TrEMBL record:
Subcellular location: Membrane
Domain Histidine kinase stretches: 217-422
Protein name (database record): histidine kinase
Span of domain HAMP: 155-209
Keywords recorded for this protein, A-Z: Kinase, Membrane, Phosphoprotein, Transferase, Transmembrane, Transmembrane helix, Two-component regulatory system
Stored Pfam families: HAMP, HATPase_c, HisKA
Lineage: Bacteria, Pseudomonadati, Pseudomonadota, Gammaproteobacteria, Pseudomonadales
GO function terms (MF aspect): kinase activity
Database matches in InterPro entries: HAMP_dom, HATPase_C_sf, HATPase_dom, His_kinase_dom, HisK_dim/P_dom, HisK_dim/P_sf, Sig_transdc_His_kin-like_C, TCS_sensor_his_kinase
E.C. numbers: 2.7.13.3
Primary site of residence: membrane
Organism from which the protein derives: Pseudomonas zhanjiangensis
Length: 422
């Protein structure tokens, strides 16, 4: 699993862990060497000394040559009787602890005779404890020094990375006059990272510039022919020589032209994604837009043999972006029309939102989230769309802070609910 710790802290932790491992092995090696000296070298020295005492002192009737901290005992030898505290000492080298006193003992048996050499080890134990204390203090100091040194080195190593991160975070990199970052860094890994960032940022700037030019061209070039179509339809609607079918076709062209104008306005605002663009397209109440869309879609729904109902269950006097609200409601009503063959469609207004209910084919629960993705259509696709209507609804709701949801109705159908309060 990837660590969530900051990189600087991970460097310090790695430095400290490495020191822990090295110092720990070194300290344990010292302790092991001390025990080796104690158990092997001391035992060998005492074995040689005991052999010398036995051969030259006892058997040769010579006076014993022992230092003040060493004593010799021998069973059945007058003047060298074994004390009771050393009676149970086994053959070979061993340590004997008696209260606060500590002794090295080396015992050798020959037939029914036993010889014992005892050496006080208080001084050696004191030096051993001092050595262990020094080793422990050195271990702790090395860890503490590793933490401090690791922090200093990590700060020095990470300084260019931190600087680059602050430059990226605290300035407007998309501004055309923002200077490149790579010249401020040497030709190392951080410099390569800054150069890669400059390259990627340059591509992004060029992409945004093309997008802005495109949206500007769309804003000017598409609106002009749409106005021509709308004005031509107005003239044709009052022409006296049109029959009913021709007049209906002119009205359909006018509605399509109006819808295209709304879509152009919606796409322009979404593409620019700026707060100051949100006021474009006008504003209106929920009831006003609902009445407008009812007049537009009710005839088409009823022409298909379906019922249409506009139900107001709550009064909402707040103002919303006209282009966005009109596009959302229009797409949901069109979707209900395409996927409903019998029954009806209901547009229900509530305080802070609305929902569109239909008695159509419904949406399987495992497909409901996918329906808001681009180019995804239901299993029983209807109409001539490409599967972008619900995706556009989702984008608008995210942009405006609205919430869209869908659920099944019983016995059949779907309900799309828009919460305008988020």
């Amino acid at each position: 699993m990837v660590s969530k710790q900051p990189l600087l802290r991970r460097i310090v932790i790695a430095f400290v862990l490495m020191t822990l491992a090295v110092s720990g092995v070194f300290s344990l090696s010292i302790v092991g060497i001390v025990h080796f000296v104690e158990e092997h070298l001391v035992s060998q020295d005492m074995a040689r000394e005991l052999s010398t005492v036995i051969d030259e002192g006892v058997q040769g009737d010579k006076p014993l040559k022992l230092d003040s901290g060493t004593r010799f005992f021998a069973a059945n030898v007058p003047g060298f009787e074994l004390p009771e505290q050393f009676a149970g000492v086994p053959d070979g080298f061993s340590e004997v602890l008696e209260g606060d006193e500590a002794f090295y003992a080396y015992k050798r048996s020959r037939g029914d005779q036993a010889f014992l050499l005892v050496q006080e080890q208080q001084e050696f134990e004191a030096r051993e404890q001092l050595l262990f204390g020094v080793v422990l203090a050195g271990f702790l100091l090395s860890v503490l020094a590793a933490w401090g040194l690791g922090w200093l080195l990590a700060r020095r190593v990470m300084a260019p990375v931190i600087r680059l991160a602050n430059q990226v975070r605290h300035r407007d990199q998309l501004h055309p006059l923002a200077p490149a970052l790579a010249p401020d860094y040497p030709d190392d890994e951080v410099g390569h990272l800054a150069a890669a960032f400059d390259s990627t940022l340059g591509q992004l700037r060029r992409t945004l510039e093309r997008e802005q030019l495109f949206t500007s061209d769309v804003s000017h070039e598409l609106r002009t022919p749409l106005m021509v179509i709308a004005s031509s339809c107005e003239l044709l609607e009052v022409a006296p020589n049109l029959d009913a079918r021709q007049r209906e076709q002119v009205q359909r062209i006018a509605r399509a032209s109006e819808e295209m104008g709304d879509l152009v306005q919606t796409f322009l605002i979404l593409a620019r994604a700026r707060q100051e663009e949100a006021s474009q397209g006008g504003s209106a109440t929920l009831a006003t837009v609902a009445e407008e869309q009812s007049r537009r879609w009710a005839p088409l729904i009823e022409e298909k043999g379906l019922r249409f109902e506009l139900i107001e269950r709550g009064r909402d006097t707040a103002l919303y972006n006209l282009s966005f609200l009109r596009t959302v409601m229009s797409n949901l009503l069109r979707n209900a029309l395409h996927y409903t063959e019998q029954g009806g469609v209901r547009l229900i207004l509530e305080e802070g939102g609305f929902r569109v209910e239909d008695s159509g084919v419904g949406i399987p629960s495992d497909q409901q989230e996918r329906m808001f993705q681009p180019f995804v259509r239901g299993l029983q696709s209807r109409g001539e769309g490409l599967g972008l209507g619900l995706s556009l609804v989702k984008r608008i709701c995210v942009h405006q802070g609205w919430r869209v949801s869908v659920r099944d109705l019983s016995p059949r159908g779907s309900a799309f609910e828009i919460n305008l309060r988020g």
